[in-house]
Amino acid sequence: MSDLNVNGALTRRRGATLRAATVRAANGDSATGTASLVDGDVSLHDGQRTRESFLELAAAKSEKKKRRVEVGDRLSCHKAQESLLSSASGYRNYRGVINWCVVMLVLSNARLFLENILKYGILVDPIQVISLFLNDPYSWPAACLLIVSNVFILVALYTERQLSKGSLSEFAGFLVHCINLSILLTFPAAVVLWVPSMTSVGGAIALGFYTILFLKLYSYEDVNRWCREQSTAKAKKLSRSLSCPSSQQFKGGEQKVCYPGNLTIKDMYYFVLAPTLCYELNFPRSPKIRIQFLLRRLFEMLFFIQLLVFLTQQWMVPIIQSSMKPLEDMDLSLMTERLLRLAVPNHLLWLMFFYWFFHSTMNFTAELLRFGDRQFYNDWWNSESVTYFWQNWNIPVHKWCLRHFYKPLLRKGFSKMFSQSAVFFLSAFFHEYLVSVPLRMFRLWAFTGMMAQLPLAWLVGRFLRGNYGNAAVWISIIIGQPFAVLMYVHDYYVMNYGDGDLLPLTLLDEQ
Amino acid sequence: MSDLNVNGALTRRRGATLRAATVRAANGDSATGTASLVDGDVSLHDGQRTRESFLELAAAKSEKKKRRVEVGDRLSCHKAQESLLSSASGYRNYRGVINWCVVMLVLSNARLFLENILKYGILVDPIQVISLFLNDPYSWPAACLLIVSNVFILVALYTERQLSKGSLSEFAGFLVHCINLSILLTFPAAVVLWVPSMTSVGGAIALGFYTILFLKLYSYEDVNRWCREQSTAKAKKLSRSLSCPSSQQFKGGEQKVCYPGNLTIKDMYYFVLAPTLCYELNFPRSPKIRIQFLLRRLFEMLFFIQLLVFLTQQWMVPIIQSSMKPLEDMDLSLMTERLLRLAVPNHLLWLMFFYWFFHSTMNFTAELLRFGDRQFYNDWWNSESVTYFWQNWNIPVHKWCLRHFYKPLLRKGFSKMFSQSAVFFLSAFFHEYLVSVPLRMFRLWAFTGMMAQLPLAWLVGRFLRGNYGNAAVWISIIIGQPFAVLMYVHDYYVMNYGDGDLLPLTLLDEQ
Predict the structure, then answer these.
(1) Pick from B1, B17, B461: which is nearest to A43 by CB?
(2) Which residues form the active site (chains A, B) (predicted)?
């Protein structure tokens, strides 16, 4: 639908341009005779007309006539016509306005950058970054958690092996998987909450890794069960196996594995490292590692992570600190001003993070593993509805939700409406899990933010279309995030630094 | 040329969209089988594919086959493909980015507005506006100047009458016109400079009016002389008169006047009031006054003049005042920051002024006078070169320069380069005249600014094309103006308020 709209819009704009050209051609009538504009940089129609006039005059072979036309042109230099901005003129070509927008944005942000440097000086401090990961240099709890995660991976693999051999009943296997996955979510949360040397950033990274692992192992269990179900069906009906499709379906010359040939340590770790959450017996593979591509992605990874840290320290932190006082006092107009001030850097950081993670890092990993499917995101920047945005900005998670949560719910007979809400509920749970546990405080802002997407999606879908819908999606991204960030940061500061005990920079910014 | 480029660009973009659609269609392959996305708001290709698959399945009449396809689809959910942002994907559809620009601009400026109100409160003061025009409520020097201007108009008219009768020789007439026009420029300048009750704003308006009158009377003299030259030629050759073209050349049914029938008071005052600088014996007239159009332009005039005053008092003045200290101290980084800070409001005010004067006011006057030619500006917002901008943003002045200055110079045998530079020199002179005299200080900033357009035009025309040229023109407009404004305002403050004696607001803004 969206592509159709684009073509339609272009056709319309094209029509407008042609109309505008006609209007200009009509306007050009006054420019006859000799060189009609101050320099040679004239518009097409004027130029053509001038040349035509010259040819006519040459044909007439009459210097007197030329002189007469020139004088007549001199005497009458006005023509009945409308102003371009009047609706009656039919003129619609405002492509220069796009460049205007870009120039204005660049200039405004150049000013903000300069103002920031003048006000705060250079705030970047690499030592501070290290302290975000390490409270105690002899205790690395987040790294330990990452090593421990291998236990859950191996438990899942060996359970599947037993199930494939039939030495474990389906129900017992299901029970083992359930216990394994439950501990997988609760154990790191408990460690993050109660180990004092765990920092918030370290905890968030560890929990993020465990969440990804949870989704991967859930998919692993599901797919292997589907394969067993199929083998049973095949055994019953003696029909052709579908768990290992015939080789002509694949372009690559690589050997395809069939269930249970996939239950190896190598296959398992390839899946754990691959940039996807959905397990598949035979992933599409790229033919070779493109070194140039790999190095470009590596450079982007290194560059953007530096820029993210720089902008956070130099731009985000001062604004957040200066927002504490208005938030405490519940000063509404000052709060709005700080929110809007935070929105720009927060949004730019989010865009950079998106590119860094979903394009550079994931493509780097995929290239290294020769993983073929690089669809990590879709064209969410053109989304005209909130749902389109959530379906397209994070394709791995979207694919997982569709394959392992939404479709199974539909198959079990639940309604689309219910299943969709359930997906948002699950997403809200994980958002809250990834924020509240590392910060060691439970405020439900992230949960509310995710659940608020449902009524927002309904509102936008109901009332806004096309570019208005797209603008609404952008506004919700740009404004919604810093709102949640401010809420958490405020609560965190109040909890950890108490009233009036904020960092000294806060006071600098108040009059 | 520019229209051709637009069409070319649109065709290219269209091609890109089609390519993108193809890429999407290819991407859509994975979405077969049952409902493939979380909700009904899916893209065209996925939706079509889903429907096609359903039809196929219905035709196969096999529940088993459907089940098998579904399971096969479940098991294989990846496809070898590139990320959209990789250059290899061929994807180019970023139309959402335009909406992003607009949203970011609106949000940034909403924040600036709120910040301004919080920092300064409401600064708007209508009494202050009146004081800009009146120093002494019993002496209205600017208004008196406007009344005196009638003398010059009548002198020009009666000189022409004598010339048409032959009771004054061509040379004597030329001399009278020269003296009349010289006094027209010098007398109001002298009044503005030496009458103490004249304010800067009142002086600028009076001088602006006199400059317009100068250009109009110069045109009046030129056209009437051309008419006489033609009559003489006609009398010599007995050929058909061209000074009054035959009526079939005009669409309107109005009676056309011939020289010297145009030398009436009514005709003269119509020309003085009409929104053009080029005299013509028979101006194109619109058939009737459209009341709705007139009222809309009147409303715009009243609305924008209020907004201009509001934004100047609330936004421009505080920034200018806070820029005095950095300018005095020659603090370069702080000066740049203030310049960029001033650029946005200054530019918006200029855009509003442009619309207010060139669209609302001129169209209002034209509608009232049934003046037919409404081309007061052209599409300068799309200009890809500095010369195109100067040729198209102010059509009345451009037309005058072309008809009464540039072409006569060419006819006298001067080169294009010289004539073009002469036009810029004339323009620079009048810019300086309109700024320096009312401010009673001669700094040549406006003159330099106009003359700097020549090398700028050369640089932009030489090195930048298309959108880059357009962006360069925008930057020169956005940055160049506030630079000159700051220079003048700084000098004015230093001259009138001395060092350290700036208004109290200045101190508020410094840390």
Answers:
(1) B1
(2) 431
